Amino acid sequence: MARLYNRKVKAKPGYFGDFGGRFVPETLVEPLRALTAAYATAKRDPSFNKELAAELRDFVGRPTPLTFARRLSAELGVKLYLKREDLAHTGAHKINNTVGQALLAKRMGKTKLIAETGAGQHGVATAAAAARYGLSCAVYMGTEDMRRQAPNVDRMRLLGATVVPVESGTRTLKDATSEALRVWSSTSRDTHYVLGSALGPHPYPSMVRDFQSVIGKEARKQILSAAGRLPYEIVACVGGGSNAIGIFSGFAKDARVRLTGVEAGGRGIKSGLHAARFSGGRPGVLHGTYTYLLQDKDGQVLNTHSVSAGLDYPAVGPEHAELKIRGRARYVYATDNEAVAALKILCRKEGILPALESAHALAYVLRERRRFPKGSVVLVNLSGRGDKDVVSVARREGVEL
Ligand SMILES: *Cc1c(COP(=O)(O)O)cnc(C)c1O
Asked: What is the greatest pairwise CA distance in the chain?
């Protein structure tokens, strides 16, 4: 099977090898075509790029720092560096993408943003960008997620967004995404759909990667300056894959740099309660893109589980599928327990409370510490901060906050 993919990568627009594409109903073809054209023009327009760069600096707080994890490095025998997306405005990398898409929407003359959200991080980042640029905002969210992530529902409302409850399916991210796509197909005249990861139909996977590529561009400069060399390995957690593709893209041409994506192993692959698409899935179509997907033998999309809501989604971005098939990146997983343990270790050793999502990347480094040559430079993308996870971590320990 893998042989099939080893032929020279096709340059079909919207595809990454055999993955990606635009598998959507008729009603979405035109809005996606218009978006693709508008983005292609904006991308080449110096005034758009200048405005985006200024907003990333003044509103988002970029560049985010690169922090040398001094105590953990000594313990692990590697030089561990953390790219601090947790310090970006609203607490994660998501804002890089929502600011980019909101500016694009404004340029296209749209007055309204809609978005899907699971944990609420993307919803908050979209609401913040909408407020900043004077756009109205509606965020679709499964009612199960609204219950689990109540503080983020309140944050979105404070930022002026309407949170629209989604009652279908398992009432989680997958259902919210389906609903947002459906709503967009009849409202695209004045509305832009801000998709939150490097997923979905073309042009989203490449557009979101581009907006997140600022992480990799900054990190490459910063690591060369701080460590005096390129990293031995770069590690990032993979939900839809936007923070990972953002940092990987900065090192795509550095063939010797190992790229590792860490998925949510949940309670273990055998339990079936996980979101490790590369360990338990196979190619199929979800939300308009052909990619690795957790599905049963009839192609029904499976339910997923992770302690971190941001990794809890049945499909992975199509560019990651291609990176895996090509052997350019490898994909592993960390379990719920490993991620929680890693979160605590980073708190105590470095004074940084990471998001549970990001803790998956760190958990892999801790578990596989012997894999790294002594003294090698390891770069972990700390995709977000863990303030949102304090209650769920405490609950796991039996403490009610
Ligand atoms: C949403 C989120 C993720 C997962 O999304 P990707 O698109 O895979 O990056 C990871 N970390 C944090 C902190 C998030 O909020």
From this structure: 57
